[in-house]
Amino acid sequence: MIRADDFVKSLNLQVLSPAAGPMLDISTADFNRPGLQFTGFYDYFARERPQVIGKVEMTYLEAMQPEARASMYETYFSYRVPCVICCRGMRPPRDFLDAARAHGVGVYLSDQVTTRFTADMIAWLYKELAPRITRHGVLVDVYGVGVLITGSSGAGKSETALELVKRGHQLVADDAVEIRRMADNTLVGECPEMIRHLMEIRGIGIIDIRAMFGVGAVALSKSIDLVIHLEQWVEGKEYDRLGLDENYITILGVRVPQQLTPVRPGRNLAIIIEVAARNHSLKRMGYNAAYELDQRMKEKLAAAREKPEEAQNPSVDGTRS
User: Based on C-alpha coordinates, what's the Rg of the chain?
Assistant: First the structure.
């Protein structure tokens, strides 16, 4: 479901006939051009989609006889389409609007050409209808990598993000991150509007990052490419020191690389996250330092195993290799 006011405002539409209620029954990021339906073909009719009328459909409507149009309207609007959008600034016939009002269907006008409008509408609907969830954490853009910092309360997430901002990176969200699945393997995070650009620092309170560091220190949204989970250092616990094993966390059905970072006094978490972001970028380009070290060790061991065999086999001149 989409709010009618949000639909009109976001797509810069003019209301020709208001919808019956505040919500539009739209559940898919697609559209239908009803040219075939105007001719009487209803064997396949995507009535659940927004109906877009372009120049072809409008020309056909204007050429119909009034009696035929009235019959067509009665059949067409009986399917309870969510809304109708007329493009190119073309207003439909008055009887079209009368029939739409009688059935409670919203009719809107766009000045854009049909192809441009449909592209904008699909992009907006994909965002609005995308599966979403809110997670506790901090989202920052570090060297172009979207890093979601998670951890228990008091682990130092906000302080680490503040240090990253001071080092030239961008804050997207603090405390609450709204996450949307924009594609099968793409997550995008943003901040709730109420707390956008704000950060809570214990002992200081609420600070405005944009006002304090400038507009370049914040971003409205960012893809989530890496999750850094902070936890208090546990003595005796074995932490990964090589990075050969890849760990993942699943968010909205998407697997995202996750790294566990222990926290204790003296550790510079900001520079650790910077290095983690750069290392993630290298991995995406096909270079893995841990794998490279593992290959060197395997080659060294293989060479060491070959040397004793060479010592047991004398060379042609009688000497041993």
Answer: 30
Q: Which residues pair with 87 in a beta bridge?
A: none
Buried b (16+ CB within 10 A) or exposed e, 255-272: ebbbbebebeeeeebbeb
Question: Where among 128, 163, 181 does a domain terminate?
Answer: 128
Does pTM surpass 0.90? no
Q: Single out the catalytic residue among 33, 49, 157, 222.
A: 157
Looking at the fold, whether 123 and 175 belong to one and the same domain comes out as: no
**Count of domains in the chain?**
2
The domain of 248 spans 131-284
DSSP string computed for 74-143: HHHHTT--SEEEE-TTPPPPHHHHHHHHHTT-EEEE--S-HHHHHHHHHHHHHHHHS-EEEEEEEEEEET
pLDDT digits (tens, 9 = 90+) for 215-236: 999 999 999 999 999 988 777 6
The whole-chain average pLDDT of the chain stands at 87
- Specify the pLDDT at position 321: 43
Residues 6+ apart with CB under 8 A from 272: 261
Per the residue annotation, which of 47, 175, 267, 283 is the catalytic one?
175
- Find the mean pLDDT for residues 61-79: 89
Residues with Cβ within 8 Å of residue 147, at least 6 apart in sequence: 139, 140, 141, 225, 226, 227, 228, 273, 276, 277
Instruction: Please name which of 291, 287, 233, 240 lies closest in space to residue 262, comparing C-alpha atoms.
Output: 233
Give the pLDDT confidence of 260-279 residue by residue, as tens digits. 888 887 788 899 999 999 98
Q: Is 157 an annotated catalytic residue? A: yes
**94, 241, 264, 320: which one is catalytic?**
241
111 labelled catalytic: no
Check which CATH number belongs to the domain holding 79 and give it. 3.40.1390.20
Spot the catalytic one: 91, 116, 136, 167.
136
Q: Is the dihedral of CA 245, 139, 189, 223 positive or negative?
A: negative
